[in-house]
Amino acid sequence: MSVDENGEVIFEGVHSYGADDDYVVPTDPNVLKKLEEFRDRKFGLFSHWGLYTEIGSMESWLLVDEEKDWSQSDLTWDTPKECQRQYKELNKSFNPIRFEPKKWASFAKEAGFKYFILTTKHHDGFCLFDTKLTDYKTTGPDCPFRVHKNANIIKSAFDAFRAEDISCTAYFSKADWNNHDYWDPTFKVGEPTSRGANYNTAEMPEKWEKFVQFTQDQIMEVVNTCGPIDALWFDGGQVNPLLGEDLRMNEIAEKARAVVPGMLMVDRTVGGEYENYLTPEGTFPDHAYKAPWESCITLDRLGWGFKFENDYYTPREVVHLLTNIVARGGNLALDVGPQPDGRLHHVAMSILLAVGDWLKANGDAIYGTRICEPYFAEKWCFTGKNDNIYAIYLTDENETITSLTIPIALTPSKIELCNTNKSIDFTVNDGTITLNLTADELKALPTLAAAFKITK
User: Fold this and answer.
1) Within 13 Å of residue 284, how many CA atoms lie on the same side as its CB?
2) What is the pTM (predicted TM-score) of this model?
3) d(CA 422, CA 74)
4) Averaged confidence pLDDT in the chain
5) Which of 309, 305, 323 is CA-nearest to residue 446?
């Protein structure tokens, strides 16, 4: 392996999600059990929430001058430094008083989500949980939201989601640009900020050790007070031993798994035994992939956090995205950032409720499945479960279907339309199967994607 200029590990062959040979298979049976449970869930709600929500900015990245070409591209302040000064004080106005975690969880269940990832803190260091290690938090003395009954956002949200039988994962930034043992404001004064620590950790080991202890203690606060959680999802690939920023993930894993046996560690982009599943961002592989993985993708094409403008994927696009990812062996963690008032945007919710309706009728072809040859071909995707094959036809918008031929070489005993559970007459050809659909069966085909259960 090697490291790119952003501190992210480059695997041989493929950046950001590597190759199967690069994946380190866990040996702990509890971890393996949780990995299989994770792979069964398939569809996760991801939510980026923090100070950036208040102004609709590119998350906390506007604090990094060296990333200014993209992170500061939409700023309207006279100077980036003035913007950064004001950004850091947004904790004094953060007040999402319409946050109702039970409504979030009820919506997520209806939309078909089986797990939930929420930002405990982003790189700016502002915490959405009641940490005792900093006042830069939703329960802090300067934050007006501190008096709200759900001020400890992470605990309130996770409690509500678990009550709906939705698994919870804690996003945690390994970097902390508010912590003076990571970004010391007395160092490199006037120089452009970068994403990493602003000092040489090898030359100042005692200072780095203070940050390591702070970080480990904060992680355990989340584990002990907001759990039980199933996974710790670590962001900030520049914080890794190859760049001299070693948080000692082995110690974190040991402590966390003493509380929740088998808790998954997702030290994303770093590789090794503590990246229990891989996390391609904004994309998915062009091939079926055997190692556990999850594509993290935004519902709003404009970014992870809430934007006052939006460009959402349609229900059809989400279903097709999910189907393509599952057919390649992965999960989809779909991000929806809440509004500044704490509600999820009504348009985003309506889109995902439509996806949920499709999953209620066709979810058997998605949940609990694994890769199955031929994986995908033309407009078809294939999944497998319990010796059955699911063939999913990705319908174009306004497409009128008059006939369907499944590109698979197989002589099945039965084929059923998933949303009706009714058998379909078919003809086996040389390498394909033609579905002899009646007029009523054509009318019953789902408009977003049609799923068929093939019994061998």
Assistant:
1) 25
2) 0.94
3) 53
4) 94
5) 323
Task: Say what the pLDDT of residue 21 is.
Answer: 66
How is residue 25 written in tokens? 């298979």
CA atoms within 13 A on the CB side of 45: 31
Phi-psi region of 431 (alpha: psi -120 to 50; beta: other; left: phi over 0): left
In single-letter form, the type of residue at position 235 comes to: D
Range name among 11-15, 37-41, 122-126 with the lowest pLDDT average:
11-15
191-212 mean pLDDT? 97
CB 16 within 8 A of CB 8: yes
Three-state SS string across the chain, please? CEECCCCCEECCCCECCCCHHHCCCCCCHHHHHHHHHHHHHCEEEEECCCCHHHHCCCHHHHHCHHHHHHHCCCCCCCCHHHHHHHHHCHHHCCCCCCCCHHHHHHHHHHCCCCEEEEECECCCCCECCCCCCCCCECCCCCCHHHHCCCCCHHHHHHHHHHHCCCEEEEEEECCCCCCCCCCCCCCCCCCCCCCCCCCCCCCCHHHHHHHHHHHHHHHHHHHHHCCCCCEEEEECCCCCHHHCCCCCHHHHHHHHHHHCCCCEEEECCCCCCCECCECCECCCCCCCCCCCEEEEEECECCCCCCCCCCCECCHHHHHHHHHHHHHCCCEEEEECCCCCCCCCCHHHHHHHHHHHHHHHHHHHHCCCCEEEEEEEECCEEEEEECCEEEEEEECCCCCCCCCEEECCCCCCCEEEECCCCEECCEEECCCCEEECCCHHHHHHCCCCEEEEEEEC
Place of tokens 């913007």: 83
**Distance of alpha carbon 265 from alpha carbon 279, whole angstroms:** 12
Chain segment 399-437, per-residue pLDDT in tens: 999 999 999 999 999 999 999 999 999 999 999 999 999
In sequence order, which residues have a C-beta less than 8 Å from that of residue 446 and are 6 or more positions away?
Answer: 358, 361, 362, 395, 419
Q: What's the rounded Cα separation, in Å, for the pair 101 and 222? A: 17
Q: What is the distance of C-alpha 446 from the center of its chain?
A: 27
Could you tell me the CA-to-CA distances from 287 to 13, 278, 322, 325, 411 in Å, in that order? 13, 15, 15, 10, 25
